[in-house]
């Protein structure tokens, strides 16, 4: 089974959602609630309601607040996304309700950093699936799939309203610590989403382009594309080798290039989204 086919299987997606829910819930139960922090999105709103009302658990409010958001997933994404997300919401609700945990982090700043990293990683793992854990993830997925807006950025911007609401209820220390938590969480989330997707686009300009290509084709089993170009100063026709590789192969490729031509020009660019051929399939919810 190809990697792209396996990533669409029910077993793999349920595994990602379960693991993501476990990690996120560990951050909430192990750090966040012990310092009265607010997380991002709908779970943050659920925590705020719980702190201020003292009634029911955050997991209960999270489940209730997600009900209207399910409709967005149903109508604007897909049925498959809806059912995976329903499972994710139920998983987070159950785990945060019944998993007692305390990492015993006393310093507020340390707790904000740790909570942000753990919650962000958990959310990122879940969003690598074809579903989500509900809340603003549903809106973020819609915006990301339609307008290519980063999921972490959506979460960060949307929390302006949440923290504006929470400002009058919190001391400055807890308020700022919660902002730190959410900021770090959004960074961790984006990092997890880009994990294993990072590629290097390499451009090689050399008069020995054929020798270079033959060698790294044989040694690295690497494909490439020739781009026709013309030297601006000399007016001579040239071929630029364009290839896509990863961090592991990059140094080997560099050694091959300069082993053939010491005067070659070796240009490397980062790319976080390479689709098609053998690199990965387009994610369709």
Structural write-up:
The protein has 285 residues and is of the alpha+beta class. It has two domains: 3-194, no CATH class; 199-271, Alpha-Beta Plaits, CATH 3.30.70.120. The protein is 61% helix and 10% strand. It contains eleven helices and four strands; from the N terminus they run αααααααααβαββαβ. It is elongated, with a radius of gyration of 24 Å. The model has no long low-confidence stretch (mean pLDDT 84).
Layout: helices, strands, pairs:
Elements: H1 3-6, H2 10-30, H3 41-53, H4 58-76, H5 79-98, H6 108-127, H7 136-147, H8 151-166, H9 172-194, E1 199-205, H10 209-220, E2 225-230, E3 237-245, H11 247-260, E4 265-271
Antiparallel strand pairs: 1-3, 1-4, 2-3
Q: Which short descriptors sum up this protein?
A:
Alpha-Beta Plaits; single chain; alpha+beta; 285 residues; four-stranded antiparallel β-sheet
Q: Count of helices?
A: 11
Q: Sketch the topology as an H/E string, one letter per element.
A: HHHHHHHHHEHEEHE
Instruction: Detail the poorly predicted runs.
Output: none
Measured as a percent range, the helix fraction is 55-70%
What proportion of the residues form beta strands (DSSP E)?
Answer: 5-15%
Oligomer: single chain
Structural class of the secondary structure composition?
alpha+beta
Mean pLDDT: 84
Number of separate domains: 2
- Total E-strand runs: 4
Radius of gyration: 24 Å
* Largest sheet strand order: 2-3-1-4
Q: Could you describe the largest sheet, including whether it forms a barrel?
A: 4 strands, antiparallel
Net shape: elongated
- Calculate the terminal CA-CA distance, rounded to whole Å: 20 Å
């Amino acid at each position: 089974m190809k990697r792209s086919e396996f990533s669409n299987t029910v077993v793999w997606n349920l595994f990602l959602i379960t693991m993501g829910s476990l990690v996120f819930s560990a951050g909430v139960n192990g750090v966040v609630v012990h310092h009265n922090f607010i997380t991002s999105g709908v779970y943050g709103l659920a925590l705020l309601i719980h702190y201020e009302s003292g009634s029911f658990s955050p997991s209960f409010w999270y489940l209730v607040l997600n009900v209207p958001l399910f409709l967005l997933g149903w109508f604007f994404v897909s049925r498959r996304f809806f059912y995976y997300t329903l499972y994710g919401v139920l998983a987070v609700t159950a785990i945060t309700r019944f998993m007692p945990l305390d990492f015993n982090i006393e310093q507020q700043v340390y707790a904000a950093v740790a909570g942000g990293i753990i919650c962000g990683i958990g959310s990122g793992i879940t969003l690598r699936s074809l579903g989500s854990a509900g809340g603003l993830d549903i809106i973020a997925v819609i915006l990301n799939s339609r307008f290519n807006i980063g999921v972490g950025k959506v979460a960060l911007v949307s929390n302006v309203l949440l923290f504006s609401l929470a400002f009058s209820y919190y001391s400055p220390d807890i308020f700022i610590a919660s902002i730190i938590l959410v900021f770090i969480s959004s960074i961790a989330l984006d990092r997890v989403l880009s994990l294993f997707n990072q590629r290097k686009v390499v451009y090689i300009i050399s008069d020995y382009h054929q020798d270079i290509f033959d060698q790294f084709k044989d040694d690295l089993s690497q494909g490439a594309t020739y781009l026709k170009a013309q030297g601006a100063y000399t007016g001579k026709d040239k071929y630029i080798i364009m290839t896509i590789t990863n961090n592991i192969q990059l140094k080997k490729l560099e050694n091959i290039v300069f082993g053939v031509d010491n005067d070659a020009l070796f240009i490397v660019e980062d790319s976080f989204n390479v689709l098609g051929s053998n690199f990965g399939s387009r994610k369709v919810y």
